[in-house]
Amino acid sequence: MKHGKKYNESLKKYDVTKKYSVADACKLVKDLHFVKFDETVELHVALRLEKNQTVRDTLVFPHQFKGEKRILVFCKEERVQEALDAGATYAGSTEYLDKVKGGWFDFDVVVATPDMMKDVGRLGMVLGRKGLMPNPKTGTVTNDLVHAVAELKKGRTEFRADKTGIVHIAVGKVSMDAAAVTENVNTFLAELDRKKPADAKAGFVRSISVSSSMGPGVWIDHQEEA
């Protein structure tokens, strides 16, 4: 892949073959920043997963960096006010089912009560393509709307390994203090370790790198951080 002059210049500022501590890697990402906008800091973790294994869950970072999420709650009429009072942006049933079916996507995350999933399930092709389908494993299918919405408002983030066994997750912004990004990375790696499959083999984490959205990747010494 061909890169621009500024990208190639940034490669000269560090040893691209070296593995760094989380703290040093996060500082380097800030130092390598060369574009004018506030880039997202991204973490990429390659896992050794067997065919029957997966990693998927949610977490709340100690340092938030995303704008407030617009939350759509699918629920029966008698629970609409409860959802709105909890902080949901939209709440309802038939009206919003029809709007989404018609192509409306003015929201960032979807929560549904279990008794709505039969109807919400019919939107699987629509919501699934955008990664918005509610799922009990991520706490977005629940009767506890107050807790679910509160966690999402605090910035609860979903993570999952893709088909190649790699987890890609945003962990901060270049404008943030490097120590805050470091704490977010360490929080995620600790959570990932807790979600490791019980039958995972040695060398579960194959590699870890961190980068800004436009910048080069910096390798992290995952053996040190394990």
Q: What distance separates the N and C termini?
A: 32 Å
Largest sheet at a glance? 5 strands, mixed
Report the portion of residues in β strands: 15-25%
Order of helices and strands: HEHEEEHEHEHHHEEHEEH
Which structural category fits the helices and strands?
Answer: alpha/beta
User: How many strands appear in the DSSP assignment?
Assistant: 10
Indicate the mean pLDDT: 91
What do these coordinates show?
The structure is a single chain. The chain is α/β, with parallel strands linked by helices. The protein is built from 9 helices and 10 strands. A 5-stranded mixed β-sheet has the order 1-10-9-2-8, covered by helices on one side. The protein is globular, with a radius of gyration of 20 Å. The two termini are 32 Å apart. The mean pLDDT is 91.
Pick out its properties.
226 residues, alpha/beta, 5-stranded mixed sheet, 32% helix
Describe the structure concisely:
With 226 residues, the chain is of the alpha/beta class. It has 9 helices and 10 strands.
List the helices and strands and how they pair.
Blueprint: H1 5-11, E1 19-20, H2 22-31, E2 40-47, E3 56-59, E4 71-74, H3 80-86, E5 90-92, H4 94-101, E6 109-112, H5 117-120, H6 124-129, H7 145-153, E7 157-160, E8 166-173, H8 178-194, E9 205-212, E10 218-220, H9 222-225
Parallel strand pairs: 1-10, 4-5, 4-6
Antiparallel strand pairs: 2-8, 2-9, 3-7, 9-10
Helix pairs in contact: 2-8, 3-7
